[in-house]
Structures are given as C-alpha cells and as structure tokens.
Write a structure and sequence with these properties.
Chain lengths: 789, 147
C-alpha cells in the first residue's frame, strides 16, 4: 500500500489534493493580466458614456478634446459607420450598437472613444467631449415597457417585446392543476445583479499593418468563438480568420461576464487599425458595473400543484425577463431563456409548463448567466421556494416533504416533465447527510422552543439539481457553432507532455486539474504535464469556459485524447516487448505482458520509443487530439441547509450555520472542488442578502461602485461547512459532472427559505432577495412582530 | 426628486416679485453661481454654477427659461443643464401671497431630475443640499430686500 501511496503522490491523479500550480505566480504577483501588458508605442482608449438612459444625440463636439495635448482622435458612431462596424450582433442574434449614431438607450452607453497617449490624458479627453443630448422618456420597468403607449426602446423593432418562449405541455399541466387537491402560487423577483469580477474587462488590440494581422489580447472566457465572430463581423474589411489571433491571458474572474463582446473591444480594434499602433482599453469599476452584462432580472410567477397527501404533481411558471436594451445573453441559440426549464428540479413532477417573455428596457443589455449555466439559478430558486411554500402550506416538514417527492435513485436515467434526461442522482442520500451534519431534528426542537419564547429562528433547505456541461451538438450551439470542446496532447520523447484546450480558466484551476486527468489516464506525473489555454493560434478550437462546462466537455476530451495516446502506446509497447498487443495489460503508467508483470514498459519508455524506435509503418510521435461532443448534459446536485436567527428589533438576518453537501460526481481535486464550493456559496450568499443593481425612474443606476453595490468580505461571510456524496455521471469518461456553479445556484434558496421558515407562522410567506434588514423589519412590523421601543 | 418650501419675506409683494424675477439680483444670491448671461430679457438666460455633492464639485452649464410669469403672483421656470457625464433638468414654481404685517409669503417647489454619474450620490445627498442651498439663497435675498 505504501508503494501505491508513493505512486499517487508522484502521479497526482484523480482525487489527489494537488496544490494549484497556477497559484505560485498569482500569490507572488506574477500573474499576467491584460492591464499588465505594455507594448511599445501603445495608445490608450477612454470612452465617453451617456448620462441619459434615453436621449437623442444632437451633436458631438470633439474640438476641446482634440485641443488637449496627447489626445489623438475621437471616434464616434459616424466614424465607425464608414466601415459599417457601428453595430454588432449579440450572441443571441440581436443587434447592439458599438457606438450609436442618433440615440442612446441606456445610461453609461458608449457614445465616443477618445484615443490618447496615456490613460490620464484619455480621461481628460473623455471629460472634454461635449455631447448635446435631447432627453427622451425612458422605461426601466419591464411591466411598464409592455404597456401600450410605453416609450419605445428600439426604433428598429415594433415594440418592447423581444420574444415569447414556452416549453412543456400546457393542457396537461392545466389539467393537473384542475385535478390538484392543493395549489400554491407566488410572485418571485430575482433582481438584476452583476458578476463583479475583481478584474474588469479590457483588451490590447495590436494591428500589424505590414502583415495585415490582428492580435487581440482580451479578457474573454471564449477566445475561439470570439475569433470566429470577429472574422464574421469584419470579414468585409479583409480581416479574415487566419489573420486574427485572440489571446486570453490570466483572467481575474469571469463568471459569465466575460463571455459577451463589449463595444470597447471593437472600438480598440478599430483604433489600432486606424493608427497602426497597439491600443489598450481597460474599464473602470463603475463602467464595469454600470454597462457590462448583468445577470438575473427575472420577474417570476410560479404555481405548484399537489395531491392532498403532499405528492407534487405539476408546476406552471410565467416569467418576464428584463433584457435591457438588447438581448445580449449568452445562451445556446435554441434556448432564449437558457436552461430555465430545469425548473422541475429534484422532484418527480408529472407535468410542467413554463413561459418566458423577453422585454426591452432602457437599461444595459445582457442577461448573462452569472455562475449559473444559463438561468439555472432562477430555475432552482423558483422550484426550491415553491416546494417550501407547499410544504409549509400542507404543514409538512420541508425535509420530509422533499424526501417524499424526490426523484428516486432507481428512476435514473430520469426523463423530466420538461424533457431533460437526468444522468444520475441520489437526492435523498445528500439531504440525509446534510441533515445529519447540521443536526436537523435537534434544530427543529430548538426552533419550537425559541418560537414559544418569541424568538425567531429559521431552517432553510435547498435540494437543487444543476444542469451543466453544454452541450450535446444536437441541441447546443452559440451562433451556430456547436458546443463541443477539445484537448490536444503531445507527449515529448522524455515522457513529459504538453496539453492544450479550447477552454479558458478564469481561476478554476485548469492548469492543475486537467493535468490530473491526463496523469490518471497515462500515468505521467501531473507535474510533468504543462497545460495551455487561451491562445487561438496554438490551442485547438473550443467554445470556452462558462456554464460549468470545462470538466464535462474539455475534461472528457482530455480523457479521450489520453486514451488515444494509450492505444498507440500499446502498439509501441507490443513492439518493444515483442509481444502481441492482445497480451498486454495496462496498469497506470505501464504496459506489462499478461502473467509476466516483470516484462513491462513504462509510458516514458514508450514515449521515448515513439521518437527513437517506433515500429516500421507507424507514424512517429505520440500525440492525440479529441473534440468531445458530450452525449448528454451532466446533472450535479446537492442539499444545502441554512440556519438563521432574526433580530426582531432590527430585522437583521444572521446565518448561524450553513451546511453544503455537494455531489458533482467524481472529484478530480477535492481541494479545488471545496474551494469552488466556498467561493460559490459566498456568491450565493451575496445576492440572497446584499446585492442588487438599483435604478431610479429616469434610468440612473444608483449604485455603480463597491461603496454602494454591496459585496461581502470575509467579515460578512458566514462559515461554510461542506460535505460530499459521489454519484458519478454514467456517460462522462471519468464520471465527473462539474462543480463551478452548484453553490451559487443552490445557496440563495436555502437562505431565503430559512428566513421565510422563521417568519411563516407570523404570516410572512415570501421576502424577495436581497433580504435586507429593512425588508425583514417591515415584514415583522406588518405582521405585528417587530420589537419597537 | 421633488422639493418644496415656504418662506416669509418682510417686504411688499411687488418688491419681492421684482427682486425674485430680476436675474441680476438673484444671481448675487444664488450659491455657487459663477456667471450669468441674459440671452433674452425676461425670458431666457444662461448660468454657469458649481454644486458640491459631498466632496465632489461639479460645474453645470445651464439654460434657464421663464415659462410663465404672472406678476405678482406666480412664476414657473425651467432649466436644462449639463456637466461632464451629467445632466440636470429642473422645473420650479413660486407662488407669492400676502402675509401679515405687510410681509409676503413665498411658496416654492422644484422637480429636479439629475442624470449621470452624480445621480446615485445625489439621490442620498440632494435633500440636504437643497435645504442648505435654499436657506442660503433666501437669507441672502432677505438681507437685500428686507428693510
């Protein structure tokens, strides 16, 4: 056993708590982020933005800006129009201004670019551009935007309604509701929030006017897709795809916000082409919060039906989705509301019907999935809230109610009422573990005692099912490009390797975990495998990292490519051992002859032979590439239990305990998984209690900075307790499901359910997130339970 | 944002009316005013004024127009101004009536729409700023016309 252990510490394959290799450079300040880049002769782009949410641009006077020494040019919509690049497509095939010609449609919209010798001069130039605006009526509420006579956000559209999307069987669902013994309904608003990555967006565009070649260093989660989009949008200018190189260096957090193309990137490219010099553009914090893609903003009306004995039967949802001025989400083409129809969650529902209407408003464009695989947070929050409301209505313990309605282990693969085929799960096991960890039964007793004394304590559960790993090519594409992903492995003569991927880490730790997958498959130590991503000139094509898709797609490609190498290695080993291929047995790191373990060749010996002594007739070298098209999505799940105490005098919610049991299938690196869960829980806690982008009636964003937009620090963040069950995905080569988003998706409902659980007996059945102290205090006051002096 | 107030000025209604509709006199009392230019007498003028929002000071360039002037009772003024990254629209009304002992009561209200980078900050500070600025303004006016 000692020997195996030593071997594991050398190989550091699956399940090893390998230290993150990328951290060596991050914690020593040697990361290479966009804003670290300095190229000779580099110019700086600043952006003039609209103070109005809706206004006509009467004129733009750049004379004072151009008079400032060091300001070189002012680029407007009219400038870009000459090259027909003043508009661009969004990833949802909508249209978005790069720079507007006549009207601005949200506050902080880009109006002009100022090109200067450094960022300070650029900022002075931005302040000196005089734009004469004629204010127009703005509409910020999507309900009002749908009313007849509402101000029209888009001149190029008939009205403010973007699309209607529905899924499921409307009639059967209606019948289930008619037949139901009990039905409950609730309005749930999931407010607009922002990914708030610590690094804002930016780029350095470098146009080589001799070679007619563009290198674009940018903060993107999907470099390959960006290259293709740039080629399609600018092809008429001669910028064909082989002349475009996208490089995504170290990224300081993406969370979905670095999937879209923002106007700043395009203006920087145009500026570099016009001047022949490298141009840098970096957003300020306010620009990032006020103008980049937001997340959520779903106004949900949900209904749930059950038999009188508490067996759930049907779910019906009607949602208004506020997309701002353009549908600039990053969903797969086929699903304008993302994977919102995972909303039947972990429960065995017979029927479901879901409708979503997309609406334009005078707010920034977007609707990206913030760490939630395409609207899964919205879905989970809806079903988990509704399940709790039903349990409370029927006066059944919420844990018992869940246990009764869970999809049972023997039902997998499970076809949901809305058509998804869940790969594997054991929901009751995860919930039971979470209950044991938190001491559920004792907490319920404590709650009853406290309630008798007038104290408010709540226990909230969220037993979520995620849907990640997009996705199978039959259903999943972005702008027509199928959502496979890729891995290319080259094993060097000395048995070391380099592997390149179509994904791009933004902090997920791919350099560590991808190496572990290959190490497990080939027996080459992780430390001997170099991982590269993010350079479209070298990495194989892929759709990038978001929606917890890297492990399910590119991770699977790493496995399959490794196995291709092993297949070739086996031929080489047979040649070296003068044995038949059929007589060889693979044991991690070596081939041996069946029955004669001493007659063996290590993977390193095989690799050396691939370059020095390969069989005649065989290609030299040892490399493989795999483009992995997953047969299905993966369905990670978990059960979270949150315990809160509420102060009746202030409405303050204090999270006393938070237990998170996650099942993401096989864990490649438990330390990284736990880190993902800790980060994800914090990103679920924040919107539950703190975060919301607030607009006033005129369309002013009222909190575009970290003083006013509340993010938790270590001080506010509760202590997280994590647990695990392991239910491998049956279709993934190593059984892994992906874990990047589970905690963000599952946590808010647990917290919200805990707060409502504390207040239900008072008659409070819902408090929308963020659950701030004033909201809770008001609810207490409205129900006669607030302590007042 | 809507604001309103009421002030008693120890002067006759005619005198108060004339003073408050005289841009030259008003501009001596308007806090932060840097310049005033009459574009069209009794109708339109242009002002440049700086306003402090906490530690941030912004200079607005505004066109001001009398929309209604009903001497000596009622006036409505409209202003549209801009500062880098910001815009402001104001509609303000004043109504004069007789107060005891020959004094005049002035009731005023203003609807201020501020857009841009200052709006978030202003939404919290505007109440206090308006109170301070209006008090300074009326103290100054009173000092000039009360006997």
């Amino acid at each position: 056993m000692t020997d195996t252990h030593t071997q594991d510490d050398v190989v550091q394959g699956l399940g090893h708590r390998r230290k993150r290799v990328e951290d060596a450079r991050f914690i020593q300040g040697h990361g290479n982020y966009i804003d670290d880049m300095k190229l000779p002769g580099m110019l700086y782009l600043g952006i003039v933005r609209s103070p109005y949410a809706h206004a006509r641009i009467n004129s733009i006077d750049d004379s004072k800006a151009l008079a400032i020494p060091g300001v070189l040019a002012v680029i407007t919509g009219e400038t870009l129009k000459q090259f027909n690049v003043h508009n661009m497509p969004t990833l949802m095939s909508d249209t978005q201004n790069v720079l507007p010609i006549d009207t601005v449609k949200y506050q902080y919209q880009e109006v002009a670019g100022v090109l200067a010798v450094d960022r300070y001069v650029a900022a002075d130039g931005v302040a000196a551009v005089e734009v004469d605006y004629e204010p127009l009526p703005a509409v910020v509420d999507p309900m009002k935007a749908l009313e007849p006579g509402a101000p029209k956000v888009r001149e190029d559209k008939e009205d403010n309604h973007i699309w209607h999307w529905e899924w499921g069987d409307e009639q059967k669902t209606a019948q289930s509701f008619q037949d139901a013994g009990v039905t409950v309904a609730e309005d749930i608003y999931i407010p607009r929030i922002h990914v708030s990555s610590i690094e804002t967006c930016g780029c350095v565009a470098q146009w080589d006017s001799i070679d007619k070649h563009l290198t674009l260093y940018m903060t993107t989660q999907a470099p390959h897709a960006i290259r293709t989009v740039v080629a399609l949008v600018t092809g008429h200018l001669g910028l064909s795809e082989e002349r475009i190189r996208i490089v995504s260096p170290d990224i300081g957090g993406g969370f979905g916000g670095k999937v879209p193309v923002y106007p700043g990137y395009v203006i920087a490219v145009a500026a570099s082409i016009v001047t022949g010099k490298p141009v840098k553009w970096i957003e300020t914090r306010t620009e990032n919060l006020a103008a980049d893609s937001f997340a959520r903003d779903y106004h949900i009306h949900a209904e749930l039906a059950a038999d009188p004995d508490g067996t759930l039967t049907a779910l019906r949802i009607n949602t208004i989705a506020d997309h701002g001025y353009a549908d600039a989400a990053a969903n797969p083409s086929k699903f304008p509301a993302g994977l919102f129809h995972i909303c039947t969650g972990s429960y065995n529902l017979k029927n479901a019907f879901v409708e979503v209407d997309g609406v334009y408003t005078n707010k920034p464009p977007g609707g990206v999935a913030y760490r939630c695989s395409f609207r899964v947070t919205e879905a989970v929050q809806t079903i988990e809230r509704m399940t709790d409301i039903m349990a409370h209505t029927l006066n059944i313990d919420p844990a018992e109610f869940r246990m009764k309605n869970f999809i049972r282990p023997e039902q997998f693969p499970y076809k949901s009422a809305l058509g998804w085929e869940y790969d594997s799960g054991n929901y009751a096991k995860a919930l039971r573990l979470a209950m044991d960890m938190v001491g559920y039964e004792d907490l319920r007793k404590e709650q009853a005692e406290k309630r008798a004394r007038g104290e408010l304590m709540g226990i909230g559960i969220s037993s979520f099912t995620e849907i990640v790993g997009a996705g199978p090519s039959k259903d999943f594409d972005i702008l027509g490009i199928k959502m496979f992903d890729s891995c290319e492995i080259r094993v060097h003569p000395t048995g070391k390797a380099i592997a390149r991927f179509g994904t791009k880490s933004q902090g997920q730790g791919h350099e560590t975990t991808y190496a572990q997958i290959i190490a497990e498959e080939l027996g080459i130590p992780s430390d001997h495998i170099k991982i590269e991503e993010g350079d479209t000139d070298t990495a194989p094509y892929g759709l990038g990292t978001y929606a917890s898709r890297s492990t399910p797609t590119a991770g699977a490609a790493a496995s399959i490519a490794s196995r291709k190498i092993r297949d070739k290695g086996k031929k080489i080993a047979a040649h070296l051992l003068e044995a038949s291929e059929d007589d060889l047995v693979w044991e991690r790191g070596k081939f041996y002859v069946k029955g004669s373990p001493d007659r063996s060749k290590t993977i390193q010996e095989v690799a050396f032979a691939a370059y020095t002594n390969h069989p005649q007739g065989m290609e030299a070298g040892l490399e493989a590439v795999d483009y992995y098209d997953p047969p299905n999505l993966t369905y990670p799940f978990g059960s979270y239990i949150c315990v809160v105490d509420i102060d009746r005098g202030t409405g303050q919610v204090k999270i006393r305990r938070f237990v998170a049991v996650d099942d993401c299938g096989t864990r490649i690196n438990p330390t990284i998984v736990e880190g993902q869960i800790h980060g994800g829980l914090t990103m679920g806690f924040a919107p539950a209690l703190l975060e919301e982008i607030v607009y006033d009636e005129s369309g002013n964003i009222l909190n575009p900075n970290f003083m006013d937009y509340l993010l938790p620090t270590a001080v506010e963040t509760p202590r997280w307790e994590t647990g695990e069950t392991v239910t491998p995905s049956p279709h993934h080569p190593i059984g892994a499901k992906g874990v990047g988003e589970s905690a963000t998706v599952g946590a808010p409902a647990a917290i919200q359910n805990a707060v409502v659980d504390a207040l239900w007996h008072l008659g409070v059945h819902n408090i929308d997130i963020p659950i701030t102290a004033p909201k809770v205090w008001q609810a207490l006051k409205d129900h006669g339970a607030a302590l007042e002096e | 944002m809507k604001f309103a107030g009421s002030v008693i000025i120890e002067a006759s209604r005619d005198k108060v009316w004339q003073s408050l509709t005289d841009p030259n006199l008003v501009s001596q009392c308007a806090p932060g005013l840097e310049s005033m230019r009459i574009v069209e007498p009794d109708k339109q003028f242009n002002v440049v004024a700086s306003v402090g929002f906490g530690s941030v000071k912004m200079t607005f360039d505004a066109n001001v127009e009398w929309e209604e002037l009903e001497a000596p009772d009622y006036a409505r003024v409209k202003a549209h101004g801009k500062a880098p990254g910001n815009g402001v629209d104001v509609v303000s009304e004043m109504r004069l009536s007789d107060a005891p002992d020959g004094a005049t009561q002035m009731d005023w209200n203003a609807d201020v729409v501020l857009v841009g980078s200052m709006a978030g900050l202003a939404s919290r500070l505007m109440g206090g700023i308006t109170k301070k600025m209006s008090a300074a303004f009326f103290d100054c006016i009173k000092g000039k016309i009360e006997v």
